[in-house]
Design goal:
- The chain is mainly alpha-helical.
- It has a domain at 37-90.
- It is 54% helix and 0% strand.
- The chain has helices at residues 21-28, 39-53, 69-92, 94-102.
- Helix 2 crosses helix 3.
- The termini are far apart.
Protein backbone atom coordinates (compact mmCIF):
# COMPACT_ATOMS: atom_id res chain seq x y z
CA UNK A 1 0.00 0.00 0.00
CA UNK A 2 2.93 2.39 0.51
CA UNK A 3 3.58 2.40 -3.27
CA UNK A 4 0.52 4.63 -3.62
CA UNK A 5 1.56 7.05 -0.88
CA UNK A 6 1.71 10.68 -1.94
CA UNK A 7 3.54 13.18 0.23
CA UNK A 8 2.93 16.87 -0.34
CA UNK A 9 5.35 19.28 1.26
CA UNK A 10 4.26 22.84 1.98
CA UNK A 11 5.51 25.21 -0.69
CA UNK A 12 6.75 27.62 1.95
CA UNK A 13 8.45 25.14 4.29
CA UNK A 14 11.14 27.55 5.50
CA UNK A 15 9.38 30.84 4.90
CA UNK A 16 10.99 31.30 1.47
CA UNK A 17 9.05 31.50 -1.77
CA UNK A 18 9.41 28.63 -4.26
CA UNK A 19 12.60 28.81 -6.33
CA UNK A 20 12.10 30.17 -9.82
CA UNK A 21 14.09 28.90 -12.82
CA UNK A 22 15.85 32.28 -12.96
CA UNK A 23 16.84 32.06 -9.29
CA UNK A 24 18.12 28.50 -9.80
CA UNK A 25 20.17 29.62 -12.81
CA UNK A 26 21.67 32.48 -10.78
CA UNK A 27 22.62 30.13 -7.95
CA UNK A 28 24.17 27.69 -10.42
CA UNK A 29 26.15 30.40 -12.23
CA UNK A 30 29.93 30.67 -11.66
CA UNK A 31 29.49 33.13 -8.78
CA UNK A 32 26.38 31.41 -7.34
CA UNK A 33 26.25 29.20 -4.27
CA UNK A 34 25.32 25.89 -5.94
CA UNK A 35 28.01 23.52 -7.23
CA UNK A 36 26.16 21.42 -9.80
CA UNK A 37 27.59 19.65 -12.80
CA UNK A 38 30.29 17.22 -13.84
CA UNK A 39 33.46 16.87 -11.74
CA UNK A 40 35.26 19.56 -13.76
CA UNK A 41 32.43 22.09 -13.27
CA UNK A 42 32.15 21.38 -9.55
CA UNK A 43 35.93 21.56 -9.09
CA UNK A 44 36.09 24.89 -10.92
CA UNK A 45 33.33 26.30 -8.67
CA UNK A 46 35.01 25.05 -5.47
CA UNK A 47 38.42 26.38 -6.51
CA UNK A 48 36.81 29.73 -7.35
CA UNK A 49 35.19 29.87 -3.89
CA UNK A 50 38.47 28.97 -2.19
CA UNK A 51 40.42 31.63 -4.10
CA UNK A 52 37.81 34.37 -3.70
CA UNK A 53 37.11 33.81 -0.01
CA UNK A 54 40.56 32.67 1.06
CA UNK A 55 39.16 29.63 2.88
CA UNK A 56 40.93 26.32 3.32
CA UNK A 57 37.81 24.23 4.00
CA UNK A 58 34.41 24.02 2.30
CA UNK A 59 31.44 22.21 3.79
CA UNK A 60 29.23 20.55 1.17
CA UNK A 61 25.63 19.43 1.51
CA UNK A 62 24.15 16.80 -0.78
CA UNK A 63 20.40 16.64 -1.21
CA UNK A 64 19.89 13.24 0.40
CA UNK A 65 16.13 13.52 0.73
CA UNK A 66 15.36 14.08 -2.93
CA UNK A 67 18.02 11.99 -4.70
CA UNK A 68 18.10 8.19 -4.81
CA UNK A 69 20.69 6.72 -2.44
CA UNK A 70 22.80 5.31 -5.30
CA UNK A 71 23.12 8.78 -6.86
CA UNK A 72 24.09 10.33 -3.52
CA UNK A 73 26.78 7.68 -3.05
CA UNK A 74 28.05 8.24 -6.61
CA UNK A 75 28.27 11.98 -5.95
CA UNK A 76 30.26 11.33 -2.75
CA UNK A 77 32.55 8.98 -4.67
CA UNK A 78 33.14 11.56 -7.42
CA UNK A 79 33.87 14.27 -4.84
CA UNK A 80 36.57 12.09 -3.27
CA UNK A 81 38.07 10.51 -6.37
CA UNK A 82 37.89 13.26 -8.99
CA UNK A 83 36.76 16.64 -7.67
CA UNK A 84 39.24 16.83 -4.77
CA UNK A 85 42.21 16.16 -7.07
CA UNK A 86 40.99 18.68 -9.65
CA UNK A 87 40.58 21.36 -6.96
CA UNK A 88 44.05 20.65 -5.57
CA UNK A 89 45.47 20.90 -9.09
CA UNK A 90 43.69 24.18 -9.82
CA UNK A 91 44.82 25.72 -6.55
CA UNK A 92 48.42 24.58 -7.11
CA UNK A 93 48.44 26.00 -10.66
CA UNK A 94 49.84 29.33 -11.91
CA UNK A 95 47.13 31.43 -10.18
CA UNK A 96 48.08 29.98 -6.78
CA UNK A 97 51.77 30.52 -7.44
CA UNK A 98 51.22 34.14 -8.48
CA UNK A 99 49.27 34.81 -5.29
CA UNK A 100 52.04 33.30 -3.16
CA UNK A 101 54.66 35.49 -4.86
CA UNK A 102 52.67 38.66 -4.24
CA UNK A 103 52.68 37.99 -0.50
CA UNK A 104 56.52 37.95 -0.39
Amino acid sequence: MTDNLIIIYPLNLHGWPPMTPEHFDALRAPQGSLAIGDPQEVAAKLAYVQRELGVDRILLHLSVGTMPHAKVMRAVELLGTEVAELVRGELAGPAAGAGAQQGD
